[in-house]
Amino acid sequence: MAQRTPLMAGNWKMNLDHHQATHTLQKLAWTLKDAKHDYAAVEVAVIPPFTDLRSVQTLVDADKLEIVYGAQDLSAHESGAYTGEISPLFLAKLGVTYALVGHSERREYHAESDELINAKVHSAFKAGLVPILCIGELLETRKAGEHVAHTLAQLDAALQGLTAEQVRTLVVAYEPVWAIGTGETATPEDAQEMSAAIRGRLAELYDAETADAVRVLYGGSVKSSNVASIMAKPDVDGALVGGASLDPEEFAKIARFQAHEVGL
Ligand SMILES: O=C[C@H](O)COP(=O)(O)O
Question: Which PROSITE patterns match (predicted)?
Fold first, then answer.
C-alpha cells in the first residue's frame, strides 16, 4: 500500500486581496511554526485568487515557507487570443504546485463542460502542475441514489487520454455540491463511500498501484471540529477547505487534525 501524504488545501475562492493574502499566509505560517507542524506528515496548500499569486510566491520564497500554493483555475491553452484566461505556463513560472480543475462553481457559473475540464487537466500536466480535479453530485442526484454513478462519470470524462504515470500524481477532490458553503457536511461514511468508489474506478481504468497512489480529498463545510472524523476514513487523504481556510488559525487547526485527535 502506498503511503499517501495527507493534503489540506485551502481554497480562498474570490476572497482576500493581495495585501490580505500576505497577512493571512504569514499568520498561517506562524501558527503552524509555533505548533512545530511537520509538513512531510501533512502537506498544507493555499489556493488564492490569481491576483495574489505573485505576493504569495514572494513571501514563500523570502521566508522559505514549506506551505505550497495553487491556482483556482487555468486555461486549456498555453498562449494566444484568449482574453481573461490564465496560461498554465504563467502559473508554473509563479511557482504554483496545484491547479483546481472543474470546481463545482466553475461548472455551475461558467458552464464548464466535461470536455473543457479534460482539456484543462491535460493542460495542467503539460505545464508540470498537479491538477486537483473536483467532482461531486447535486442534492437531487444524491436523493435519486445516483450520486456514485454521476461522480464516477465525471471522473471518467476528466481522465480521458491520461497515462497511468500522470494519474498517479493527480489529486481528486470529492465535493458533494449540497455540502459546499452550506454548513451541511457529508457524513464520514458518505465521504468514505465515494472515495472508495473513486479509487475502485481508478483501479479499473488503470491499475491497483495507480489507484493506491492517488490522493482523494473531501470538500464541503470542513472545519476543525469535523475534520478528524472525516480523516479517520481509510480512503480520505485530505480536505479541500473553502470558508474555514480564510481564518488562518482555524485552517492551521484543520492541518493539525492529528494533533487534535490525540489532544496535543
Ligand atoms: O473548494 C472548497 C469547497 O468548495 C468547500 O467550500 P466550503 O468549505 O466553504 O464548504
Answer: TIM_1, TIM_2
* pLDDT tens digits along 65-124: 999 999 999 999 999 999 999 999 999 999 999 999 999 999 999 999 999 999 999 999
Q: Pull the grid cell for residue 223.
A: 472545519
Confirm or reject: Cβ of 240 under 6 Å from ligand 1: yes
Residue 242 in marked binding region: yes
Give the CATH number of the domain where residue 102 resides: 3.20.20.70
Q: 42 in a domain, yes or no?
A: yes
- For the chain, how many structural domains are there in total? 1
- At 124-167, the pLDDT tens digits run 999 999 999 999 999 999 999 999 999 999 999 999 999 999 99
Residue 2 lies in a domain: no
**Structural domain span for residue 220:** 7-261
Q: What is the ipTM of this complex?
A: 0.98
Residue nearest atom 6 in ligand 1 by C-alpha distance = 242
Amino acid at 25: L
β-partners of residue 27 are: none
* Angle, CA of 55, 60 and 63, to the nearest 5°: 115
Residues for the chain: how many in total?
A: 264
